[in-house]
Amino acid sequence: MKKIFTLAFVALTLLLATACGKSNNDNPSPQDDAKKALIGTWKIEASFVNGKEIELTECSKKEYLEITQDSFSVFFSESCILKETKNSYTVLGNVITLDNGIKTTFSIENNKLTIIPDENNKTIYLKK
Predict the structure, then answer these.
(1) Does 25 reside within a domain?
(2) What is the mean pLDDT of residues 71-85?
(3) Which residue in 28, 72, 111, 121 is deepest, having the highest Cβ count within 10 Å?
(4) What pLDDT, in 10s, does the model give residues 43-73?
């Protein structure tokens, strides 16, 4: 009888250990999906200021975003030299919040990322 209780206890322990070890990654949240969609390198394609498309210069055509799981890097042209600003970030719905407090809305469609800081301005990036 003691052997049966011991085997039952071992089986129950293994069952509980397996069940408790399951991760929640089996059902990713919408925020996880949105963040995964952002990850990658995004080359600038177009920029709109006050609703009008502005012509990209040869220097600004080199600008891009590099987004990883942990960081949001903007490579921008200053006197035709690329400079980087790097921040950690969070995603909630369709809003990116950088660790410096800047918030912006975004959308992704057909490998195009649109960053919309306000209703009159937006920048479109194409995934490399």
Answers:
(1) no
(2) 97
(3) 72
(4) 999 999 999 999 999 999 999 999 999 999 9
